[in-house]
Amino acid sequence: MKLKHIAIIGSLFPILFSLVLFFGVLISADSDDENSNFSSGITGMNLSAEVLKHQPMVEKYARENGISEYVNVLLAIIQVESGGTAEDVMQSSESLGLPPNSLDTESSIKQGCKYFASLLSSCKNQGIDDLNVAIQSYNYGGGYVGYVAGKGKKHTFNLAESFAREKSGGKKVTYTNPIAVAKNGAGGMAMEICSMWK
């Protein structure tokens, strides 16, 4: 039963992004103000001020990596990963094989954008047209792209659960993320899916 809870937690990552992006687009589309800008759409996505202060740097590195159209997703990643308050705001040090929280803020954003671009490219190269696969892979590691490619090319709850179970060997650790606690109670149990940046 605990394994199922882990898969729920893992599956919440892309669902959370989808909801954030959906409401952002909905609010942006509803605006009749011709002077509304990109920032107002992002504000409608309930991103914290701490996250929004990183927007110019995210735009810069997204542009450098050819993924400017994913700035909203990248900002949502920052919101979920750190709330914009940690120095390694995108928690991207592990994608370089470094210990967690090893990067300064600019290096984190630079690497996070580069890594997300590589995940999008990997999805495209493997015939995957599901943004949720790239988003989940940001959290699970690039191996998830290949896993999904061989199992229908669409992110599903069952695939996330299966991948987490296989990669963790079923090992569970206490996970106190607020989403996990809300779903699973004070223990917030989760499978150990760390260090899967291979």
Automatic annotation (TrEMBL):
<dbReference type="InterPro" id="IPR047194">
    <property type="entry name" value="CwlT-like_lysozyme"/>
</dbReference>
<dbReference type="InterPro" id="IPR023346">
    <property type="entry name" value="Lysozyme-like_dom_sf"/>
</dbReference>
<keyword id="KW-0614">Plasmid</keyword>
<feature type="domain" description="CwlT-like lysozyme">
    <location>
        <begin position="49"/>
        <end position="186"/>
    </location>
</feature>
<protein>
    <recommendedName>
        <fullName>CwlT-like lysozyme domain-containing protein</fullName>
    </recommendedName>
</protein>
<dbReference type="Pfam" id="PF13702">
    <property type="entry name" value="Lysozyme_like"/>
</dbReference>
